[in-house]
Records
---
Amino acid sequence: MNKAASLLVIISLALFSVSCTKSAENIFQENNNLGITEEAEANDYSINKDGSTIKNRYPAPKGYLRVDTPENSFAEFLRNQKLKPYGDKALFHNGKKKNDSGIYDSVFDVDIGDRDLHQCADAVMLLRAEYLYTNELYDQISFNFVSGFKAEYIKWMEGYRINVDGNNVNYFKNAAPSTSYESFRKYMDMVMAYASTLSLEKELTSVEDVADIEIGDVFIVGGSPGHAVIVVDMAANKDSDKIFLLAQSYMPAQQTQILISPLDEEISPWYSLKNKDRLITPEWNFDLDTLKRF
């Protein structure tokens, strides 16, 4: 993800700056070659437009049941994320609206601030951090900057702040201890400014078999360009075939969205990987070996 703030960490990383951007022409051509058309066919799957959470808005399609999720788990947290009213557009950090045509079906009710920070990897990191923060698992909130510096929330809550001076990054004591949500979000702003798909990809653990995909897993490509999408819900049929919902942010910073499934129009926005060798999403195509886990 390409951010000016990341360039302040190590100037030499400029050539490797990460971006969620991929040529729209290239994406269209890739998808067109796979037989994807711009017009979706009619289907029997019905969305509960009055539902205010992922779980309530998107029932499992006929023949599928939602997978069980442990109480207080990351999976349960994700499928209960609050959504904006159906039909509301995703907002960019500057307040402008993102066109939803062929890209997303719903938008997370998330405050992304007015800085160009909340891009693809940032949305994933914020969801993970919000889950840990909500459950007071403060010592588990930690993300690496692109430089390799480990930014730990437990240090931040003790009043330490992070100074970035070229190649030198260090903690310094500059505030009273606090676990307030406002302070937590300032910590996450710091993380989002200096972390990216490049650093997050290295932190996550590879999932060896895509058949083992779980809620909370992330398809991620770190680099330039780079992108990340996160699995936010899942269902399965009697044959154990899994389908799932995906969420993403993108460039420039924007609210997180539930993605439309271009190859599974009859159950969209649910995704299936059955008989597929790649994950095709509206704004990025992933190899299946890019699946990773916190």
Note: The chain has one domain: 4-293.
---
Amino acid sequence: MKKKITNIFFLSLLMISVQAFAQDTLVGWTFPSTSADSLADFSAGTLNTSRYLSCQYGTYGFPSYHSIAIDYTTNGSGGSPDKCAKAIGWNDCVDSSYWMIKFKTTGYGNMKLYSKMQGGGSNPGPRDFKVQYKLPGSTFPWVDLAGGTIVCANDWTTGVIDGIDIPAECNNLSGQISIRWLLTSNLDINGNSLLSSGICKFDDIIITAVAQSGVERNDFGTFASIYPNPNHGSFTIDNIRDVKQIIIYDITSKCVYDREITFDNKVSFSNFNKGL
């Protein structure tokens, strides 16, 4: 497609939002065989490169608190050579033992959580968990995440968290958000009492998010700021340089907006059908 002499600025809309602002991996642990350890395998830029996974019992600072050893030599959800995190010693630890991650959300929002758990095989591990989050600071309590109940089995498809929302109060914070997977019963995956040998495997822990900066480079090497980001059909295009006209097409390639640049380029599609 030829560029017009007037330097037209093209936007493409998908589900009444700007397509460029897709979910990015904010932080993630997938335990590849080349670096199977507690450190994060993915980070948005350098924001969360030093974050790590832990397994713990109790509350830090209390006499009963202790770390639970994690093994990274067992095959994970992807099969060999993919690895996972594995821990034992979950018996008699209801509401006390948990997996935990911490991460920063500076510049990001609209976060979603993914994870996979397996409850062992010949050494059946814990069946029941729930996911909780906590804001930075010692005064904030642990809060249950909606949709965060987990029932594990001896497979990688049952105990799955598949893109549940992390609340908006966690958006764009410079302090560390905490998320934990807390044991909620003393039953193994077969419904029997947990033994000390019971194994819990953990893999593919991913937090996705949307960058909130709203700044993207266009086809002509100039910048435009689009906000709010994300939006619900109404947004402003600002700081446009060397652009004379704004043309916006929907997902079907139909032109839905065609205007010369004005002082206030506020665009609203709130009355359009969802998805156009």
Note: Confidence is low (pLDDT under 50) at residues 1-20, 215-222.
---
Amino acid sequence: MKELQKLTKKQLYNKIREKSENLYTITHEMLESNFFNESSLDEESLAEFLEMLDDETAEKIKEASLHINNENDTPEIVLIENESDRSLELITQEGEGYKIILIEEDIHLSEKLFVEDYIVLIATGNIQAENIIVNGSLYCAGNVTCKVLFGASGNDNETYIGGSIMSSLIAENGHYTVAEGNIYSRYLISFHNEIMGKTGKFIENISFEKPSESGLLNPAILDEDGYFDEDSFLNFIKSNTPDALFIKPTDLF
């Protein structure tokens, strides 16, 4: 991964809009809502409010307001170039905070694409990889082709695909996944949120959408109470095909 340039918010929006008006609309709404909502405390109103309180309470609230105003929550925005054709792991260092990463090219990987909790990845092309694991958020203007697309349970994050999704398994564990086009997959696991193809969702073999159906999953990816276990699932798919995730009663095939 090669960092090409640090971007301002305006530069980011301009670059996205040049590639895809639809992706710009989606990401602009999300970023403004989650990261760039520049609401600040009205000092005059705060002063008037503090006058109505006892001295001890007023001092505590004043200290808290100063802490809020001094926090730097604005994410770093970077344009990167992917130099690997094998895997791409997007992570932050301890204490870095949120980071928005823009890639202005197709992403072709023979193995894994991993998006950490504190990362928002915006890709203006297509994405092809073996396994795509999204803990943070992924916004892609084109199509996604993979063996496994998994939206993890981190904070109800989102995967948005401007085209279609083609996979062997599409799954989520508390993650919203939407494609403007179709979703084509052999298997689907969706226990906590929603996986939606706006023009169609075509699941060839098995679609699990209730926690009560976890009994039809391989025990290797279940916890001691018989429920889907995210860590076990992620370890399992490293060396097994999606077919091996399921117990296969003959009446299902």
Note: Residues 76-242 form one domain.
